[in-house]
Amino acid sequence: MKLKQLNVILKEVKNLVLKDLFVMLSDKKAFILILLMPMVLMMILGFSLGPAFSGNGLTQPIVVAIVKEYDREHDMNRFENLLGNYVQDHEDVNIHEVIEEIESMDIEKIFFKDFLENDDLQQIMSYQILDRTQAEEKLSTGNIGGIVLLPENFIYDMYINFITPFKNEIQIEIIQHPNNTIRGSIVESIMKGFFDRISSIIISKNVFIETAVEESAGLEIYNELEIFLRKISEDFETEKVNIEDMQIENSGRINSFDYYAAAMLTMFSLYLATIKSRSLMEENNQKTLQRVKVSGVSMKSILLSNYITVFVLSMLQIIIMITYAAIALKVDWGAYSTVGILIIAHAVAIAALSAFIGAMILKLQKLKIADFFESAAIPVMAFMGGSFIHYSILPAFIQKMSHFTVNGLAIRGYIYIMLGYGVKDIFNYILGLILMSGLLLAVSIILLQKRGVETNVDHYEIKNTEIKG
């Protein structure tokens, strides 16, 4: 009996899927939205953002403005006076030798000559020393990639942190142009690397001083500080910045066409979910669902057929767009066996999202839910997932949140495959898509079963009328 019921359901689902596929594939508006628009955007974004993805991402070195808001001479005099007052009662401390050694460890030389003028670093970044007004004008016109503000008392605070047991907070401000976030992020990363190195040296100094205090060395420690300072200066001179253009073995390199092919594919697959959900509500309003139910088709068959329809359409959409990008835009998607596995997981998630949206629409009987997803939810998901700008440039908390979006997981999977990674490497993304699908389907079932879906069919009443002869 159960086998017979299963056969009936499968036959119903098959007929409904074929009907839905015919209707959807003959919809010109849907065709434009899910296929034509992403294809056009792939090409436009690929050409317009090509320089940001070529080579190391730069066509020429970034020019950064260094703004010195401090007075070097004033800072040095202030620190020497402080140090002199600190040790004036201790004749065994040769303050003049300490000051000479401090002056030999030139903070500006370390930052400008040893770091910024390093040959390897200058391949990707050069600098100009400007005042703040000049720097902001050049940044606004796009002539520089960012501004680094060295604050007031910079030299004084640096020496306090290097030499004394105390610590003064130093706020290095980096200003980026909102329309040039890639270059600004590179400047920020480079500066962070330098000042992280400075922080590690200061920590070493603190350990040095604390050890001396524990051994009751007192202020005699400053006689040994000369060796410590000389070692720091030598480290900066010999420890050059080494920038290598490395490529993982058997891995590829992506360009703008590669990235935005994956980005547009994952974004517009989200719109497919809303299109079918919207049509489900329209069928309900037009009494199509009621007529189907009256004909004996169960609601389970209707919902299952909708899920399968979206899954098949999503598979077709993704495969067509991948084929188009490979032929027209020369996108190398990587190992197609791995891509195939990701396509299935991606399509399963899109179908589950469609089921979730459809369940909400039927439950609340409001078509505006589809409008909300199309106009608000999907653009937000697209932004968080990296469909507009590269996901690595997004703020850290948004990058974390993007792992809870279908497109955020899918785009990472496609990019990793392009770079030469295998199924094991993208397993977390595939698993994430499957788990998200299960969660969306579970919520959809709960929504539809809690009070039942209103299709008005249950209100129909069949009466037998006896004909008397």
From TrEMBL:
The keyword Transmembrane helix applies. One of its GO terms (molecular function) is ABC-type transporter activity. Keywords: Cell membrane, Membrane, Transmembrane, Transmembrane helix. Residues 29-445 form the ABC-2 type transporter transmembrane domain. InterPro entries: ABC-2_transporter_component, ABC2_TM. It is a multi-pass membrane protein. GO terms for cellular component: plasma membrane. It is found in: Cell membrane. The chain crosses the membrane at residues 30-53, 259-281, 302-327, 339-364, 376-398, 426-448. This is ABC-2 type transport system permease protein. It comes from Natronincola peptidivorans.
